[in-house]
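Technical annex, item 7. During the second reporting period the consortium partners agreed on a shared format for inverse folding records so that results from different sites could be compared directly. Each record opens with the tokenized structure and is followed by the designed sequence. A conforming record, contributed by the partner at site C, is shown below for reference.
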């Protein structure tokens, strides 16, 4: 626990990197940590684009408004919320459960949960199902506390962004634990970067770009300030 807390407290957004190569083994460990983040219904609605070749990294850095972290990083990770991957993800988990000899009752339970998830998250053509869900869940909420599922494509992206952000934090902490530094960036040309990566506006939304590398000796970290606990936390 102490080691984990040390990593959390020492992680900073580094603005200047040394040119080092991130080998395949640490790269895979960092990305594996990211994909092990929790997600609603285990749907894992995200994709990672690890950009390390000099030409492609320069192109992405330019679309990140030529920020210094982007230009000096060893790699850039474009993190994308992906609401189009849900059917393939549920099918993949179902096949894994069958290969792993799960009991038929467990497989049926998962199939039922997956069907419920599809209904809850399906916007339908022209958002028609959103109207139906809004009325249905409004009526159900009159009888019991049940909440409201995502009603629009914007709601779906908002839902997916939450899980994607958890994966981003896992990625940055894993990088820190392995001796690398990171800088999450929201400054980028969203439209052009999406086009560069061949993303679909219907299914994909870029959440952030993370610069990864080794902190330059020339970079001096400014003092860190966080709001005090009593300004941030309410204990009930």
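Designed sequence (site C submission):
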């Amino acid at each position: 626990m102490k080691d984990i807390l040390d990593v959390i407290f020492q992680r900073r957004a580094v603005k200047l990197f040394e040119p080092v190569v991130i080998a395949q083994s640490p790269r895979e460990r960092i990305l594996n940590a990211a994909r092990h983040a929790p997600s609603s219904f285990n749907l894992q609605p995200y994709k990672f684009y690890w950009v390390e070749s000099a030409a492609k990294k320069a192109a992405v850095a330019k679309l990140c408004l030529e920020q210094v972290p982007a230009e000096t990083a060893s790699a850039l990770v474009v993190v994308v919320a992906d609401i189009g991957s849900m059917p393939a993800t549920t099918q993949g988990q179902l096949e894994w459960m069958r290969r792993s000899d799960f009991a038929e009752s467990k497989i049926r339970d998962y199939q039922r949960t997956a069907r419920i998830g599809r209904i809850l998250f399906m916007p339908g053509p022209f958002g028609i199902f959103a109207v139906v869900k809004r009325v249905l869940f409004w009526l159900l909420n009159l009888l019991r506390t049940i909440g409201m599922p995502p009603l629009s494509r914007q709601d779906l992206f908002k839902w997916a962004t939450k899980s994607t952000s958890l994966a981003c934090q896992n990625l940055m902490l894993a990088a820190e634990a392995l001796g690398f530094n990171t800088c999450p960036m929201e400054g980028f040309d969203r439209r052009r970067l999406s086009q560069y990566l061949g993303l679909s506006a219907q299914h994909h939304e870029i959440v952030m770009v993370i610069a990864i590398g080794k902190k330059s000796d020339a970079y001096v970290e400014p003092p860190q300030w966080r709001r005090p606990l009593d300004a941030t936390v309410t204990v009930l």
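The chain is about 50% helix and 15% strand. The beta strands are 17-18, 46-51, 75-82, 181-185, 204-215. All partners now use this format for quarterly exchanges.
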